[in-house]
Amino acid sequence: MSERYSFSLTTFSPSGKLVQIEYALAAVGAGAPSVGIKASNGVVLATEKKQKSILYDENSIHKIEMITKNVGMVYSGMGPDYRVLLRNARKLAQSYYLQYQENIPTAQIVHKIANVMQEYTQSGGVRPFGVSLLIAGWDEDEERPYLYQCDPSGAYFAWKATAMGKNFVNEKTFLEKRYSDNLELEDAVHTAILTLKESFEGQMTEDNIEIGICNKDGFRLSPPEVKDYLASVQ
């Protein structure tokens, strides 16, 4: 019966589901693992970045990207869909800055991105985005970190720590055992790497994982330090 509704985005099945959204979540579940952990003094994002060929230029591909100087995000799922959402997010953030002359708060940019994702579940001639996003930010007014997850349905939640992508259930279980509310940022980076190692195949190096750190100094990618972090958790 559900097959009759599986190709329609805007029609509910008799069980109350939009089946295309479930397929989009399946695309996320088949994507590379990504982890986000909120510490007491910042947030860390980490993801697996394996290349399909050794001939790729690894410097040309980035999975963790900056939206504003205080907010960054990572995805699991389909890379091209992520690129569209990233461009939208940067435009929305810039529009807010032009209007108010200050950086957009993390909760507001998450809300705006989630609205874009939700529109693609209710419009004809489109499909849902095949990505879930982890968005990390530091709010200057409140002087505290935030971590959010956005799903293809447009639903979003604030998290202390979470994982998505391939093998996310085991990674979440691992995080539940390791997480504590007084975790420092340095320890959060180590925990994120250990969480990725739960499902990592082969040798983990600075070339096949990516880490982003967000604290009071802003959001930054940390390639130089990745090697040191890896050495400390071997």
Describe the structure.
The protein is α+β, with helices and mostly antiparallel strands and about 230 residues long. The chain has 6 helices and 10 strands. The protein has helices spanning about 20-30, 80-100, 105-120, 170-180, 185-195, 225-234; strands spanning about 35-40, 40-50, 65-70, 70-75, 130-140, 145-150, 155-160, 160-165, 210-215, 220. The strands form 2 sheets. Strands 8-1-2-9-10 form a 5-stranded antiparallel sheet. It has a 5-stranded antiparallel sheet with strand order 3-4-5-6-7. Strand 9 (about 210-215) and strand 10 form a beta hairpin. Helix 2 (about 80-100) packs across helix 3, helix 4 packs antiparallel against helix 5 and helix 5 packs across helix 6.
Summarize the structure.
With 234 residues, this protein is an alpha+beta fold. It contains six helices and ten strands.
Computed over alpha carbons, the radius of gyration is 18 Å
SSE string, helix = H, strand = E? HEEEEHHEEEEHHEEH
Roughly what percent helix?
25-40%
The oligomerization state is single chain
Strand content: 15-25%
Strand order of the largest sheet: 8-1-2-9-10
Separate helix tally: 6
Write down how many β-strands occur, each being a DSSP E stretch of 2 or more residues. Answer: 10
- Large-scale geometry: globular
List the defining traits of the structure above:
alpha+beta, 5-stranded antiparallel β-sheet, 35% helix, 234 residues, 10 strands
Layout of helices and strands:
Layout: H1 19-29, E1 34-39, E2 42-48, E3 65-68, E4 71-77, H2 79-100, H3 106-119, E5 131-139, E6 144-150, E7 156-158, E8 161-164, H4 168-178, H5 185-197, E9 209-215, E10 218-221, H6 223-233
Helix pairs in contact: 2-3, 4-5, 5-6
